[in-house]
Design brief:
It is a single chain. By secondary structure, the chain is mainly α. Helix content is about 65%, strand content about 0%. The protein has a two-stranded antiparallel sheet. A hairpin with a 7-residue loop joins strand 1 and strand 2. The N and C termini lie far apart (about 40 Å).
Length: about 280
């Protein structure tokens, strides 16, 4: 497909194209949405005040990115933005299971025993892959998605710099910091394939020029992360097998159910409010 589709009206004329496009948009939106929520749980709990401010800004940006994707879905007739973000059940969500996992034991208000190493590794690896996808999406056959990717990339550049700094400094510190980081790397790698997959409509997404091939994107990710491992003299962990399920087909954990109940509480309590 050489010419870009420029509007939602044009999309309606091709059922298969719309199916592949909406699937991709749900993945992009739900990934950013749930990880933004996990980031928000660190408000007031980050290692120091400067990080608290920086992480809050990153979290707000990610929610803004999710909003942009949900907005494109709204234009395609999938429902209003607030419904898409707050009212869809867990089995309708397309986010990777890795992103819904709780930050640690306890809750934000009651004994928040969160794992900063896990947060750093998860965000760093996620943002590495997000950058790879954004570079591909800027050439998407769907014009509005291409434009969104170009705009998001301008903010995202600073996100990945932030997490790269944390990742390398904690690994290089040695001692307990490195030990905890290596443990977090192993944990993230157990579910990394669930993040890298584009789901059952992956081939259609490529055929319609929405994004490049899944295998190509995966290889770019592994090439980049392997360079980081070599630089820091880290052993490459074994890839996981999505033992907890495949979020791209609506398989999720209780962590997501709990998160959705909490983050949609106000929305559900005042359903007629203008958000």
């Amino acid at each position: 497909m050489n010419e870009k589709i420029k509007s939602a009206t044009e999309v309606q004329q091709n059922k298969e194209y719309k199916e592949a496009l909406t699937e991709l948009l749900y993945q992009l939106a739900d990934d950013d949405f749930i990880l933004s929520f996990r980031g928000s749980e660190w408000l007031g709990l980050a290692p120091h005040i400067e990080e608290d401010v920086a992480f809050s800004s990153i979290t707000q940006n990610m929610m803004g990115h999710a909003f942009m994707y949900y907005q494109l879905l709204e234009e395609l007739g999938e429902g209003d933005i607030d419904y898409l973000a707050h009212s869809r059940p867990s089995d309708a969500r397309k986010n990777a299971i890795l992103l819904e996992e709780a930050n640690g034991n306890g809750t934000y208000l009651t004994n928040p025993n969160f794992d900063w190493a896990f947060t750093v590794v998860r965000h760093y690896f996620y943002d590495m892959y997000k950058r790879i996808k954004l570079l591909s999406l800027k050439n998407s056959s769907y014009g509005p998605l291409s434009e969104a990717a170009i705009n998001i990339r301008m903010e995202h550049y600073y996100h990945i710099m932030h997490w790269q700094t944390w990742f390398k400094q904690l690994i290089s510190a040695g001692g307990e910091a490195k030990t905890r980081m290596c443990k977090a790397i192993d944990r993230v790698y157990e579910e990394i394939e669930g993040l890298l997959t584009l789901g059952p409509n992956a081939k259609k997404m490529t055929v319609f020029g929405l994004i490049e091939e899944e295998d190509v994107l995966k290889q770019r990710f592994y090439n980049e992360i392997n360079e980081v491992f070599e630089e820091l003299q880290l052993e490459r962990p074994a890839k996981g097998e999505m033992k907890r399920g495949n979020g791209r087909i609506g398989e999720h954990t209780e962590d997501l159910n709990t998160a959705l109940l909490l983050l949609s509480d106000v929305y559900r309590s005042i359903p007629n409010a203008v958000w």
